[in-house]
Amino acid sequence: MNNFGKGLSDDERTDRGVSPQVGIVLLFGMVIIGASLIFAVGSIALGSVETQAMAEQGEQMMLQVDNGIETATGDNVSSGSVYLEDDGEYELTNDSQITITAVNNYASDRTTIPLGSLQYEDESGNTFAHQAGGVWRGEGSEARLVSRPNLRYYEAANGTEGRVELDITNLGGELDDGENRVTSRPVSGEGDLSRDIGFVNYINVTVSGSAYHHGWATFLEDEFDAASRSDCDVAGSPSETIICHDESTETVTVIAPIEGENPFASHVGIDPTIYGGLYADDDLTIDESVTVDRYNGTVGWVSGNVTEDLLVANGELELASDANITGVPVVDGHFSGKDGAETSNIAFATDPAGTRIDEINGTEVYNVTDSTPPELFGAKLSESFDGIDDIDQQTERAIRLIDEYEDSNPIASEKLESESDKNVDGFYYEDSDIDGDDIDEFDTSNGDIHVAVDGNVELDGVDVTGDGRAYLYVSGDIDTDGVTVDGDQAQNFWIYGSSDADVTVRNVFQGVMYTPESNSLTVAKDTAVYGSIVAGEGIDIGENVSIHFDETLRTDVPIPEENRDVTIEIGERRSPLDVTFVLDRSGSMRDNDPSEQRVDATKNFIGLMQGEDSSVLEGDQSDQAGVYEFNQNGYERHHLSSDLSSVNSSVETSASGGTGIYSGIEIALDEYERNRSSSAEQHMILLSDGQNDPATEWVCTDGGWLGCDNWEFYDYNQQTLDQAERAADMNVTIHTIGLSDDADSDMLGDIANETDGDYYPAEDDDELEEIFEGIADKVTASSPTTFEVASVDEPTASPHDYAVNVREHPVNIGG
């Protein structure tokens, strides 16, 4: 049977018959899957590109927002605008803040500024923020800085001082899509954070609650060049800048040195201006006798050998007919005087009264009272001097700082006590008046004392002891009666007062009364001031007031350089003199001065000295003279006396015995201690033709004819030098004359050098008269007044302007 035209039989079938169809299906499937994979990968890549593009677009948009805000907060601009795209979500948040704390050893000052921020999230989930003037971008759980906020830390080249400036924007308002108006609200919190506390040891900057704390940590670490630490608690003054980042609390803290440690007086920030003994910031009338001279406070006050100093008025100065000023008036205003008014020196004024009579070295000179001959001279200042500003702000700061220090350091701060051994170094705060019997002593032996008094102060019989300083900061009135400082060192006691203070000074005051622009000043009759007074209005100076200015206090001279070279011959005046003549009467003087030239020379010298009615001497004064001789012992021919005729008549000589130079000096110095004039210069003229003879010897001090129970050794050369040191301590200048080649020129030279005198060798007695005349010309001559600027060594510096400057810019954003 033919099988042509029939299919395969069942037992002959296989799967090969379906291969073409399956292959086609598989081919299409693979194409579709491949295309899908390509599409998926392409979509992912495209999405990433789009996300990155949107992120960059978001950064640019936020930078434009930053530019708009910066424009609106710029100088002399109060508004602007920003455009917010409608392809994302915007939100104004206020859940973070920045706190800046300035710290020193005595106080701290803190300000906190909310970090109102504009946050933006685009359609791709990218997040951005404008915060504190900077632009930040979120990156997952972290963040990075796009543009920096307005915070700068400047470090000095020596690495010991820094300065911080923050200009923080605080955003608020209600947002609209599209154009939004940006309005800068009034600036708040502007100024120097150190203004209220003085110097700043270090600063603490803390950012808290910010979602962008990672970016803040990176920025602050870089800006402050800070070392990372886990703990930012510090004590004292940190020596390095450190940073702490607490991720759990979203807090970043930086501790940075600013100015380091400084004395409390520096924190107060008073930079005193002291011209001379007295400064009045008002018109002043003098109708009594007033003396203003100067001394060097490092060695203390010694009467005699002092120089006139400045009485300064920042206003008019009028001298009544009985006025008598021993000193140099300096007036920034009109200077006038009544007939009979006197000054010991020429006065300086911007507007002297009277008639112009001369021009000396470019300075116009006036006859102030138009008397004939001229009695009161005024030199015209070429320019005004600077007035002295009040210290109200600094005094208030000191009182507040000490009050705060007492609150935070109850163990370290104290209350003043009347017992003399209680008020030692440290800080004291009194919130009520101090009465006269509350305090007897300030003991600065172990350090400085700072006393804040929120009230009035009365000091009666108070001693300032020790080598340190005592400072009083007083809000109310001040009354002193008998205040002394060890060694007359006025720089060791300062009283600072306000412009509202009524100030009274009685009896003795040693120190500095610094109350510029005060309400009133009364200096009672017969008061002696050692130091300086700086006062304001309502000045009342009593009769016979003496102000002895400590020249180490001077910070400036109110007389311009071009006006200081003025010398007027008025029949020159000088200070009175106390002169003792100590003449050798040993036996050798018969040969070395046979014609007794020393008698004539001494009498001629006394003849050049001035009596009470002399116009040469300052004030109603008189020279004094005394005559003494020595061989082994000292003898008095005439005690110190203003009766110069009587002294002259006493000058006689004799010659016998050995030589004991020390005995002549000793007896004359004993007389100075009894009868010296407090206002006179002390000079001694010592003449000898030999040397101590004997120079040394053993002397029996206890015994009789049969023996000696006690022998003592005497070195007469050393005794002579000891007497020279005593003279120097008493401010007695010894001028020595060695007659003949046998004179001990070394000893006589040492005596003169020790006392700031001169040694004159004389070959014979014919030279004595010329030498005596030369010494007389020197000690009786008037010397021009000169001024030397010293500096106050504390405060050592003043707080820097804007050491920590913080500004908050509130900004409103809305449609």
TrEMBL record:
Keyword Transmembrane attached: yes
Protein's name in the database: Flagellin domain protein
Q: Where is the VWFA domain?
A: 578-775
- Keywords, A to Z? Cell projection, Cilium, Flagellum, Membrane, Transmembrane, Transmembrane helix
Specify the domain of life of the species encoding this protein. Answer: Archaea
Q: What is the species of this protein? A: Halopiger xanaduensis (strain DSM 18323 / JCM 14033 / SH-6)
Taxon lineage: Archaea, Methanobacteriati, Methanobacteriota, Stenosarchaea group, Halobacteria
Q: What SMART domains does its record include?
A: VWA
Q: Which Pfam families match?
A: DUF7289, DUF7305, VWA
Residues crossing the lipid bilayer are 21-46
InterPro entries found in the cross-reference section = CLCR, DUF7289, DUF7305, VWF_A, vWFA_dom_sf
